[in-house]
Amino acid sequence: MRRLFFLLTLSVRAAVAYRYEGSGYSYVESHDVDYSVQYTGSSYYVDYKEPRWCYPLSIENGDTECHSPRGANYRSTLGTRCRILCDRGYRLLGRRHVECTVTRYWSGMSRCKEVRCHSLPAFPYGSFVCSKGTRVDSECEYICEQGYQLEGDRTRVCQENGQWSGSEPICVDYEPPRIKCPGSREKVAEPGQQTTRVYWDSPRIKDVADKHSTKIVLRGPPSGSEFGKGEHIIRYVAYDRERNKASCKFTVTVHVRRCPVLKPPVHGYITCTSAGNNYGATCTYTCEGGYERQGISKRVCLFNRSWSGLAPSCVPIEINVDVNSVAALLDQFYEMQRLLIISSPSASDMYYNLQMNMLQEAACGLELRQTTVIELVGNPPRAVGRIKEQQLSSEIIEQLRQVFYLSSMQFNAVLVDKYGADRERYIQPVASSELFPFIDIYLLQKEEKTILQERENFCN
């Protein structure tokens, strides 16, 4: 039996306009779709004359990549599959892939939503500035207030995942406070007192970061204290909240009204009342046996810090140089003085000048060791000899050189003890550091050593 097939053909023309609010899709133009339906007896076959079946996709802040069975030029035919992409700074809400179905609708709805990072919190002791607020790629720069330093990331960027890059920095107070002390002070103690009371103002402090959180520590006596003679250091230390510190100092100097310290005369000593050299003290001069005082016996420390009168001196009996022989000259020193006799070819001799300079500095030590210097300079008829300020005759000069075997052609010296014996000779200048130890060890008697130990500091 032959089957009879019926072919029913319908031509349809449809006008379509779509708009889906909030879906992310839009198609606002009308389009006609021509198609025919054929019935084969068991099913219908739809033959499209117009390839647009679903409305065209339009994604706000995004785009689509579509693939149609009819080719790359068709984007909304039946069976077209589209991939939805969002612009940078936006993320997809909904399905990533959709398909144009036989119902003339896409298989799902999607949209692109803007990505935003959370608002940054307040920044203690500083601020930040952002280029795009909380949007993606917005760059925020942190700045600290004056007196603080930034520690950590200086900039942070809003990323596509909605998170800020890096971590929040902090502002740290590294700058110490500024402190200025009062000026140094000098005070004079009243006569008869050793102390005085001193006052001063508090130091001035400034801290840019911590205007009201500064602590001050005083190291030293407080204002209004009694200060003794001398220089006293007063120090202030300022700390801020972060324990940064700064310090300043000044001095308080107290002067006790005193006269210069008196030095005892050579071959003499001084005894003083009170503190020795303060205002009103009286000092009495006394000479050793064999010496006599020339000048006043007492001096008083005056209010203007000077001593009354002039310092006396202790002088030995005058040596008589107007004698006819060297023996008569030497007898005057026997058991009384040691002699250091220096012979030089001229007053310009280098060794001679160096020796006299050294002896001038050692004059006090020579006196304490009871040593007299005799100078023999030059050759006849211009030879010069002297004991301190007293001049020797040319005959005595020649006899001294002969007795002690001293050359007139070169520098040489001889040390003679109290008994006229030659104890040591020198062909070069001798320093006190060499001369004094020799005298102390080999020439001083026991009593002389004791006196020297008691009075050696007087030369200082």
Automatic annotation (TrEMBL):
Residue pairs linked by disulfide bridges in the UniProt entry: C144-C171, C287-C314
Highest rank taxon of the organism: Eukaryota
Residue ranges of every copy of the HYR domain listed in the record: 172-256
Pfam family, one: Sushi
Keywords for the protein's UniProt record, in alphabetical order: Angiogenesis, Cell adhesion, Cytoplasm, Disulfide bond, Repeat, Secreted, Signal, Sushi, Synapse
GO molecular function, one term: signaling receptor binding
Keyword Calcium on entry: no
GO CC annotation: cell surface; cytoplasm; extracellular region; synapse
GO BP of this protein: angiogenesis; cell-cell adhesion; positive regulation of cell migration involved in sprouting angiogenesis; positive regulation of synapse assembly
Keyword Transferase: no
PANTHER family: HYR DOMAIN-CONTAINING PROTEIN (PTHR46343), SUSHI REPEAT-CONTAINING PROTEIN SRPX2 (PTHR46343:SF3)
Name under which the protein is recorded: Sushi repeat-containing protein SRPX2
